[in-house]
Write a structure and sequence with these properties.
The longest helix is centred in the N-terminal third of the chain and has 18 residues, at 23-40. Strand 4 and strand 5 form a beta hairpin. 21% of the residues lie in helices and 35% in strands. It has a single domain (3-134), classed as Roll (Thiol Ester Dehydrase, Chain A). It is built from 3 helices and 7 strands. It is α+β, with helices and mostly antiparallel strands. The strands form 2 sheets. A 5-stranded antiparallel beta sheet has the order 1-4-5-6-3.
Length: 139
């Protein structure tokens, strides 16, 4: 399935009073990775399927390790499932320096996001455009 990796250096604005990443920041990083995944398939959100909405209907994230200010993260996004009108992307975040080490990296966070294609006029689910479905379904 299609996959991309992005890198993020945690900015100060994304940490809370404990000095750890605020939980909402990882959700933004996941969305950035999801947008990059779709862009890498040739469907940038700013120029394709402008008549279709793509709301997120389910988002989850599990935090496995403490993440702090100035930590460098690599967020991996992988298409996990493609349905008739929705698809699910799985995410794994790692400390970037650990990915470059000899030993396997331990994840810092994992998550999932389900996105539904909707008709903007009716706000009802609609089939994923065939060319997008084909790109998302590549093995």
């Amino acid at each position: 399935m299609p996959q991309v990796r992005i890198q993020v250096r945690v900015p100060f604005v994304d940490v809370d009073s404990s000095g750890r990443i605020h939980f909402t920041a990882m959700l933004r990083y996941m969305e950035i990775a999801e947008h990059e995944l779709v862009r890498s398939l040739g469907f940038p959100r700013t120029t394709t399927f402008l008549d279709i909405g793509f709301p997120r209907v389910h988002v989850s994230c599990d935090y496995h390790r403490a993440i702090g200010y100035d930590d460098e993260l690599t967020v991996e996004a992988t298409v996990e499932r493609v349905g008739r009108s929705s698809w699910t992307v799985a995410f794994t975040a790692y400390f970037t320096q650990e990915l470059n080490a000899q030993e396997p990296a331990e994840s810092t966070a994992t998550g999932r996001m389900t996105i539904v294609a909707i008709d903007k006029t009716t706000e009802r689910a609609r089939p994923i455009p065939e060319e997008l479905r084909a790109a998302l379904s590549k093995a």
